């Protein structure tokens, strides 16, 4: 699963990307379009449950869940018409599964703003409108082909035509992104190949000043109010400060966090919220070799979860043995959990819960 970092030029996307990934390979400069090709990096998703598990099951290694991040060049007004190499940049957004929009809330006379002033809601509107215009263009381009196919009696094509028209009506008449439109599963599947950008889940990252780390400013309040209306979340981050913190080793990192009044790097919250925005959750396997978090979509069944480890596990799934972290903390060992009757046996229809600790039995 991939999340794309987007925003206007000079809002701190590449600085945030470098801090999150620790890669330092994304160019960050005080001029638009210093990023042309997207930068990619992998981040670990912080999860204190891993540490809690290893108190009772001591492994040789601990492996957290991971996410792929893509740093995409700045989008400007007119991008859907090709401004600022817009079509090229928009194509990169089509390929990701969720959008992390960085919104500038900091003031710095030395860092130019393409709009001439810091206005978070105007920035959000610019990005949203460009993505909507691009989605309209995509759908209008796909409609004639789908209509021709539907005239042959192709049921899938007829469904696709209806879905395209449903989306176009929503975008044009309501002027709202497609994530606000409820499509049924068949409709959504029929147009999934188009990579419609406003249908993707979104997380807003408010890039704040160093004196507003908790995001209490009026600018951030406006973003929160807007995000609530569209069913999104907001994380305040000072990308410049986080980049500095990310470069430090312990104990210097802890000292700097304490000095600025942070319990943990805000980047950890970004990673966790990005994970949630993608509709993901974790389950765990725990043994002497490793304690590991595995990434699955919310709603995945036990066989599907087993298939993340290996396709043979899904193909030959027999059952899952499942317990919770609370059980481990109460009974201390898996043996005692089993003796207490807390080790559940679940079949093929079991829907995985976030935080399940599992053993899978299979036969191929």
Question: SSE layout and pairings?
Answer:
Blueprint: E1 2-6, H1 13-21, E2 39-44, H2 48-54, E3 61-63, E4 66-71, H3 86-94, E5 98-104, H4 120-150, H5 155-174, H6 185-190, E6 202-207, H7 218-230, E7 233-237, H8 239-246, H9 252-260, H10 266-277, E8 280-286, E9 290-297, H11 302-309, H12 311-315, E10 317-323, H13 325-331, H14 334-339, E11 344-346, E12 357-362
Helix pairs in contact: 1-8, 4-5
Description:
This protein is α/β, with parallel strands linked by helices and 364 residues long. The radius of gyration is 23 Å and the shape is flat. Strand 8 (280-286) and strand 9 form a beta hairpin. The chain starts with a strand and ends with a strand. Helix content is 41%, strand content 19%. The chain is built from 14 helices and twelve strands. The strands form three sheets. It has a six-stranded mixed beta sheet, sandwiched between helices. It has helices at residues 13-21, 48-54, 86-94, 120-150, 155-174, 185-190, 218-230, 239-246, 252-260, 266-277, 302-309, 311-315, 325-331, 334-339, and strands spanning 2-6, 39-44, 61-63, 66-71, 98-104, 202-207, 233-237, 280-286, 290-297, 317-323, 344-346, 357-362.
């Amino acid at each position: 699963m991939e999340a794309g970092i987007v925003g206007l030029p000079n809002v701190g996307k590449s600085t945030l990307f470098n801090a999150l990934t620790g890669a330092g390979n994304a160019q960050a400069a005080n001029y638009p379009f210093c990023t042309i090709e997207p930068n990619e990096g992998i981040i670990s998703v912080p999860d204190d449950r891993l540490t809690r598990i290893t108190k009772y099951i001591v492994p040789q290694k601990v492996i957290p869940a991971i996410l792929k991040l893509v740093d995409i060049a700045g989008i400007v007004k007119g991008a859907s018409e090709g401004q600022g190499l817009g079509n090229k940049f928009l194509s990169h957004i089509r390929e990701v599964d969720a959008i992390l929009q960085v919104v500038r809330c900091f003031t710095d006379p030395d860092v130019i703003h393409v709009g001439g002033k810091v206005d978070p809601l105007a920035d959000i509107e610019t990005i949203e409108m460009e993505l909507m215009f691009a989605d309209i263009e995509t759908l209008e381009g796909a409609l004639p082909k789908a209509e021709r196919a539907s005239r042959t009696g192709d049921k899938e094509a007829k469904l696709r035509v209806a879905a395209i028209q449903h989306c176009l009506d929503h975008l044009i008449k309501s002027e709202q992104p497609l994530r606000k439109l409820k499509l049924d599963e068949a409709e959504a599947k029929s147009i999934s190949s188009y990579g419609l950008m406003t249908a993707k889940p979104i997380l807003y990252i408010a890039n704040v000043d160093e004196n507003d780390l908790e995001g209490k400013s009026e600018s951030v309040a406006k973003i929160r109010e807007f995000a609530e209306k569209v069913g999104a979340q907001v994380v305040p981050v000072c990308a410049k400060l986080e980049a500095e913190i990310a470069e430090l080793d312990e104990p210097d990192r802890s000292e700097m966090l304490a000095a600025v009044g942070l319990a943990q790097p805000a980047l950890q919250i970004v990673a966790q919220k990005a994970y949630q925005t993608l509709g993901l959750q974790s389950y765990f396997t725990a043994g002497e070799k490793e304690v590991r978090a595995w990434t699955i979509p919310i709603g995945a069944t036990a066989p599907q979860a087993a298939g993340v480890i290996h396709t043979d596990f899904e193909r030959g799934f027999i059952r899952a043995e499942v317990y919770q972290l609370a059980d481990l903390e109460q009974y201390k060992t898996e043996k005692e959990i089993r003796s207490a009757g807390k080790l559940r046996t679940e079949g093929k229809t079991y829907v995985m819960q976030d935080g399940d600790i599992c053993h899978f039995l299979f036969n191929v």
